[in-house]
Model the fold of this input.
Amino acid sequence: MDITSASQLLELCTERDQDLAQVVAEYEAFRSNTSCEEVRKQMRETLKVMRAAVENGIQDKGERTHIITGYGHLFNEASREGRVLGGSLFHNVILYALAVGQYNAGLGRIVACPTAGACGVVPGAMLAVAEEVGSSDEELIEALLVMGGVGIVSASQGPISGAEAGCQSECGVASAMAAGAIVHLMGGSGEQVFGAASLALQSHLGLVCDPLASLVEVPCVTRNATSATTAVVAANMALAGIPGVIPYDETVVAMKQIGKAMPESLRETSMGGLAASPTGKRLYKEMREKYRL
Done:
């Protein structure tokens, strides 16, 4: 049993008359030589870590970071004081994504999904939506399994690291995973799950990886927030019946091809993009002098 594509995963669902969460749970149990119960137990722990990262990240004022200073805390205060636009769902998606990204930059414990640099996208989008619609923990565990399924087929066909294909393969894939999880939470079909995933990833194609001073802070943390909101938009469009048009498998292949065409300077080397801007170069010099790198 080896799942390598979205089309194959959907075919298995049809053949077995099971939903995506069930098939992914059985697949993970097979791969790890354990039981579906143990897989779900691990997903419960994953959910626990995500929630803790959100809570701790909101309180994190940047004591252990180098450039960013408590982005989750700042947004939370602005939201409470009515200084930002949008309703509670929009606020929380941004807040949670920023908080987890901040916490990661400060060496906090997070869930890499699919990478540490994109760790705020899934919890930012999924947890905010779950609170908005009143999802149970069991429903969230099912959604996390679906998220994992999108991640499995993404990693099987294309890179999921910025060093290989730019941030499209980190925040882009994370957004696709989050979009799929949200669609499942909302009762969407497997086809809609991957339709949403395709829409989300399509919106990230060509996104470069250009961290300032080689730190996973700028623009990484704020990019997590925008990718989380994109996931919600993509999920809404899929639930409304708007198709991804390009199947998810083909979108992942396109991402891989674009990544190969990217120059090395735009693939996590901090040699191009924002990292090569005058401010980016200044910050890099300051970091080198301060920490004697």
Remarks:
- The chain has one domain: 6-144+165-291.
- Residues 36-59 form the longest helix (24 residues).
